Backbone:
């Protein structure tokens, strides 16, 4: 079968294991069903901005043309640094967008991806955000009424905790599964600034996430479509937003947002 379409990040459904779907314009491809099969990916050099649809020679922030990159609310600095969000002050690139995405409940969380990390996400993005990061476990730490306050909490905790995921370790499943998230949550609450500790949530539910992976590679080789526009191999798993192939090859689907690709399987 052959499908050609502009790539968007895979839609993930929380189940055991996670269900992954690719939007191929008029239908969705259930990617889990391709595991164990040979998959060929071809990129012919076309990129369309995922915001405006215009052709662009280069993709910014995982799918945007440059004009959208510098003007769209989805690429504002507070997306990567939530403590910089000014929507609560009435300042934003798009006030209507900010009301739905910044001036709404957010969670600061602890997750186990490659190691223990702290992060921020909108309430509506749980557990999608954790799945996209390849986390195997996560717990809510604090609940805030907007993105800015969540960012302040994360910033305070980054003095003691990482906010990064090592994608190589995550894809190798090289993780310390013995880390106790509830114990780490208690520690985080103890070291948090007193004016921010009131946002700590008593929701201690541990989310456990299983991924459709036959076996994890010992060595990782990232596929760069800009250098190697055609690739084929046997798909052995999916984790985060990565397709994992035999011989350790992986591709980050989200990185190539807007790329017009041909999938042959």
Residues:
């Amino acid at each position: 079968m052959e499908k050609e379409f502009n790539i968007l990040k895979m839609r993930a459904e929380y189940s055991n294991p996670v269900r992954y779907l690719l939007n191929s314009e008029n239908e969705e491809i259930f990617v889990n069903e391709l595991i164990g099969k040979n998959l060929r990916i071809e990129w012919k050099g076309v990129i369309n901005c995922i915001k405006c649809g215009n052709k662009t020679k280069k993709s910014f922030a995982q799918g945007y043309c440059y004009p959208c990159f510098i003007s769209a609310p989805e690429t504002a600095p507070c997306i990567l640094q939530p403590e910089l969000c000014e929507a609560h002050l009435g300042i934003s690139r798009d006030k209507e967008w900010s009301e739905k995405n910044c001036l709404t409940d957010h969670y600061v969380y602890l997750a186990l991806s490659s190691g223990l990390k702290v992060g921020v996400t909108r309430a509506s993005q749980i557990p999608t955000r954790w799945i996209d990061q390849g986390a195997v476990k996560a717990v809510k730490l604090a609940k805030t009424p907007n993105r800015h306050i969540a960012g302040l909490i994360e910033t305070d905790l980054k003095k003691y905790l990482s906010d990064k995921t090592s994608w190589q370790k995550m894809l190798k499943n090289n993780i310390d599964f013995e880390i106790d998230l509830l114990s780490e949550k208690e520690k985080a609450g103890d070291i948090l600034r007193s004016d921010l500790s009131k946002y700590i949530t008593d929701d201690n539910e541990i989310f456990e996430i299983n991924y459709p992976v036959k076996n994890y590679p010992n060595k990782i080789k990232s596929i760069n479509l800009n250098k190697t526009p055609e690739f084929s191999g046997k798909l052995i798993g999916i984790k985060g937003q990565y397709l994992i192939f035999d011989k350790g090859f992986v591709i980050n689907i989200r990185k190539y947002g807007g790329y017009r690709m041909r999938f042959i399987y």
In short: The two ends are 5 Å apart (CA to CA). Residues 76-208 form one domain. The chain has two domains: 2-69+213-264, 76-208.
